[in-house]
Design a protein that fits this description.
Layout: H1 3-16, H2 23-33, H3 41-58, H4 60-69, H5 85-112, H6 120-131, H7 147-159, H8 167-177, H9 182-207, H10 215-241, H11 249-265
């Protein structure tokens, strides 16, 4: 892997991990176009750690509130918009179905997806989700997330193990459909991405990792993924709050068309 390729892959990982366009599908397509036939597991792991650092920094205030709530008698969750120890349990509830689905289907994903058809049908699903502007519920407390809502969001996050189905897009859109406030929906999606990214990293370690491409490409890829990932988080939150999340739909539709074309060409 060259220095330039590491920068491009870092940029793709940082941009697509949180934008509703599927990071795994983009990385697989990019590696194939670069002629990298075998998965660069160590480098992929490094890029995911870069985006993990980005989300931890982005949620630093919320994480600080959650941690501080563990040492208080009164939980800050008493304020509807506050973050407290209840969010730890909500994240655990969401992560359980995510983990189960990931374990059950990860071998299917590894063996049945091909370069030409990678995630085409899931990209179509992502496009349809992005075009959805319905609200099934109007909650009295839109900043409050109930246990069953967290579990439902965890299920759709688990289904995002299939390349092409956007993790951030599907979880945020489902939260909005359930009547959860836009800013709360976005940040909860970011919060539960932390155990999801860590779980993916553990799977990578279990499979064994290859050698990193070198110090310079590795550092560059990590830093680019971190910086671009943080910018992506800012963009996603802003678009969700302003109700403009569907602007990504034309892009995912074009990407799905490209995947179908590549599959047709063989």
């Amino acid at each position: 892997m060259t220095f330039l390729q590491s920068i491009v892959l870092g940029l793709l990982q940082g941009a697509t991990e949180f934008l509703p366009v599927s990071s795994s599908g983009h990385l697989l397509l990019a590696q194939r176009l670069f002629g990298i036939r075998e998965p660069e597991l160590a480098f992929d792991l490094l890029l995911h750690l870069g985006t993990l650092a980005a989300v931890l920094f982005f949620l630093r205030s919320e994480i600080a509130s959650i941690v501080s709530s563990l040492f208080r008698i009164r939980d800050p969750w008493a304020a509807p918009s506050g973050w407290g120890r209840r969010d730890i349990w909500l994240a655990i509830v969401a992560s359980i179905p995510t983990g189960i689905i990931g374990i059950v289907f990860h071998k299917t994903v590894e063996t049945e997806l091909t370069f030409g058809g990678v995630g085409a049908r899931y990209l179509v699903l992502t496009t349809l989700l992005l075009l959805t502007n319905l609200r099934f519920r109007h909650k009295e407390e839109p900043d409050r997330i109930d246990w069953w809502e967290a579990a439902a969001i965890g299920v759709i996050q688990g289904l995002a193990v299939f390349p092409g189905l956007s993790r951030s897009g599907s979880t945020i859109i489902l939260a909005l459909l359930l009547g959860i406030a836009p800013r709360r929906a976005a940040k909860f999606s970011f919060l539960i991405s932390v155990p999801a990214i860590l779980g993916g990293a553990l799977f990578t370690l279990k499979k064994g990792v290859s050698h990193l491409p070198g110090v310079a490409p590795s550092v560059a890829g990590f830093l680019i993924a971190l910086f671009v990932g943080y910018l992506s988080l800012l963009i996603v939150e802003r678009l969700v709050v302003k109700g403009r999340f569907q602007r990504f739909a034309p892009y995912t539709a074009c990407l799905a068309a490209l995947c179908f074309y590549l599959q047709y060409r063989g």
